Amino acid sequence: MLVQVALPVPLYRVFDYRLPAATQATPTAEPSARPAIGSRVEVPFGRQTLIGIVVAHIAAADSSVPLNKLKSIYRCLDNEPILNAAMLKLAYWLARYYHYPLGDVFGVILPTLVRQGKPLDLLITHWRILPNITDDDFHPNAKKQKQQFDMLKLHGERGASEDVLLLEGMQRPFLKTLEEKGLIERYIEPKQAPTPVKLAKLPLDLNDEQQQAVSTIIAAHKAGRYTGFLLNGITGSGKTEVYLQVMQAVLEAGKQVLILVPEIGLTPQTRARFASRFAADIVLLHSGMNNTHRLQGWQDCRTGHAQIIIGTRSAVLYPFADLGLIVVDEAHDGSYKQQDTLRYHAADVALYRGVQYNIPVILGTATPSLEHLKLVDDGKLVECQLSTRPGNAKPAPMQLIDARLQSTHQQTTDDGARYDTGLTDAMIGAIRQTLEAGDQVLVFLNRRGYAPVLLCEACGWQADCPRCDAHLTVHYSRQNSSNAYLKCHHCDWQAYIPAVCPDCGSQNLDAKGIGTTRLSENLHAIFANPQTSKVLYPIIQIDRDTTRRKDSWENIYQRINQGDPAILVGTQMVAKGHHFPNVTLVCLPNADRGFLSADFRSPEHTAQLMIQVAGRAGRGDKAGRVLIQTLQPDNALLLKLVKDGYLSFARELLQERKMMGLPPYTHAALIRCEGKTLAVTMQALKDAIAILPSNHNLAVLGPIDAPMSKKNSRYHAQLLLIAKERGQLHQVLSHWWQPVLALPSAKYLKLTLDIDPVGW
Ligand code: ADP
Ligand code: ZN
Ligand code: ZN
């Protein structure tokens, strides 16, 4: 008897091993001595010792390697399988669909500590208050201790895990002190069977469309059959309430619910929305977790201890004891596609898992991707529409400002220099009006920093990154002008701002264009300067630079939610999911640039972003409006979007894609090659084309240099294969891709394969 093991090596095969000598000798040994399929074993591999997953038991006669050449496994790490049949099937499917080595698939699926062979039942320290301890046990002067004690007290009798407490701001020395004083104790929480989920708050009364959606989805749940739903609801239409009421039925049936969200920035808020409705065991899964917590979360999902699981992309790969529903919120979002290693799309995997478990899967969005609309057309997704906002809230109308007719507003600095604010007078007027009415304004600009380019006015020199095909972004602030530098947003290269042009010596260097820092300063000069404005309005900048610190989002949130008039300036961070009830005006000074981009997906993504940002307006009781400042007011796509809305716009794009034979009407695989020069990468891809089977029936585009071909001093070329039928593509890839990896010219290069790529 042999075992087949998937090992974390980039080879498209599994490896046969003999059982440890002791087990071989006694055929009647305990069955537990033979490692179960789905359990971990430690094995010799060359000179290394590796940990792998047993994927099959085979007879010695069925091995392609003679018995005396086979090595024995060193030891079994688990008494029972850690991956059940469904998880193994998932791994096989991922390996096949994405043409990725099975052992490496496990490398992606398994938490680090599991891969390292750690036992699954890790112990997490909890803290709780000892019985009979009251506030009187504190000396009046021990204020800090009392304050820390009160934080723990909020968690009630059961206390909380140490990590949670530290996150909330408790300090470890105080935990120790309080323990030494006999006020609190540490303990290991015994894992109990989860208690049935209870409603913590009553559901809302649904409107007709919501009711229709909820009943349809619950029917699929009750029937115990897979159905993929596209919950297509405009921003603010109450998609979450639909999720919640479907979840209620699923949770009451004792099953788990998985909710995928695009970004971790949203999870605390999201968690609160679910936690306030259900008294349930909620687990958050995201990239910010440490290894212990990830393992704990993995275990909680696997054992069924977790009832509601909220996670980012990779949560779709977790094992679940009894999954009853998957929700993919903002299903169009680009973050669902993994852009390295195993390049899976979490929405696609979610649908696969729905089929696996015979459960409904909800893809919720206000701006469905063209792929998902096509699935509706093909009858593979059932569409549920929500076309209104509950109550009085109305979606904000969008209005164009022709920036060719109105020049942008000029300002003068203290030393008399004039500069362009990048905002038309019409937009500035609307902002002022909104602030004076006591409301908030959101100005969206998807570019952080001060300016995207540093240019020499005399000779045209531009500050470029020495390692990438990209300009360096100018980081600077008029208030703190000593802190000025150039930075590459692709590889983080940094440089000082030169005093003179390195090419011609001119001092005439100018920061061109506008990023969020500069826009904030311009707005500051207009709306927060005593010389130009009677009332000084706060300008709140929200981007990666201002939210880097852990608590900064919280602070920003608090400032916004106080509700006083203010201007928020943000990048796409503000586009998603946030609820700012007092924002009634959303301004997009130049969000429409994306309609001109070379990437055929750019109009789709630009429109999605614009609609999401626009959706931040008028979410409270007051009506909102959206102003789009553009230099191309005749652009047919832009007009379509503004006049007829996202769905008509998307339908038109779909027609175009169909005519041009682009995805989703065809199926693509993108092969990228990375190396030290462009020439070697191009050569490898040419060699790859040369070994394509003669009757492949695919469109082959390339090799060409990839967009931004030089990045971090490495060069990238790419090749695109497009097929009419998905089957044709996979047929070719399954015979061709492994020989490509083995090409002599590819030996020192990095070759990657991206199935269903989202950009090229
Ligand atoms: P979406 O996720 O579709 O953008 P939300 O789920 O955030 O929208 O809902 C927007 C607001 O509408 C929320 O404040 C929510 O509580 C409220 N809401 C949703 N459904 C109802 C309903 N049936 N009755 C009253 N208010 C509702
Ligand atoms: Zn110059
Ligand atoms: Zn760079």
Automatic annotation (TrEMBL):
Q: What is this protein called?
A: Replication restart protein PriA
Q: Which is one Gene Ontology cellular component term of this protein?
A: primosome complex
| InterPro entries, per database record | DEAD/DEAH_box_helicase_dom, Helicase_ATP-bd, Helicase_C-like, P-loop_NTPase, PriA, PriA_3primeBD, PriA_3primeBD_sf, PriA_C
Among PROSITE patterns, the record links this protein to: HELICASE_ATP_BIND_1
Residues recorded as binding Zn(2+) 1, renumbered to this chain, are: C456, C459, C501, C504
Q: Which UniProt keywords apply?
A: ATP-binding, DNA replication, DNA-binding, Helicase, Hydrolase, Isomerase, Metal-binding, Nucleotide-binding, Primosome, Zinc
Q: How is the cofactor bound?
A: Binds 2 zinc ions per subunit.
Q: What is the lineage of its organism?
A: Bacteria, Pseudomonadati, Pseudomonadota, Gammaproteobacteria, Moraxellales
**A Pfam family the protein falls into:** PriA_C
Q: What class of enzyme is it?
A: isomerase
Q: Name one GO molecular function term.
A: ATP binding
Catalytic activity, as annotated: Couples ATP hydrolysis with the unwinding of duplex DNA by translocating in the 3'-5' direction; ATP + H2O = ADP + phosphate + H(+)
- Helicase ATP-binding domain residues are 220-386
| Binding-site positions, Zn(2+) 2 | C465, C468, C488, C491
- What biological-process GO terms show up in the record? DNA recombination; DNA replication initiation; DNA replication, synthesis of primer; double-strand break repair
* Oligomer and partners: Component of the replication restart primosome.
Could you tell me which CDD domains the record lists for this protein?
DEXHc_priA
Q: Which gene encodes it?
A: priA
Q: What is its EC number?
A: 5.6.2.4
Its job: Initiates the restart of stalled replication forks, which reloads the replicative helicase on sites other than the origin of replication. Recognizes and binds to abandoned replication forks and remodels them to uncover a helicase loading site. Promotes assembly of the primosome at these replication forks.
Report the family membership: Belongs to the helicase family. PriA subfamily.
Which cofactors go with this protein?
Answer: Zn(2+)
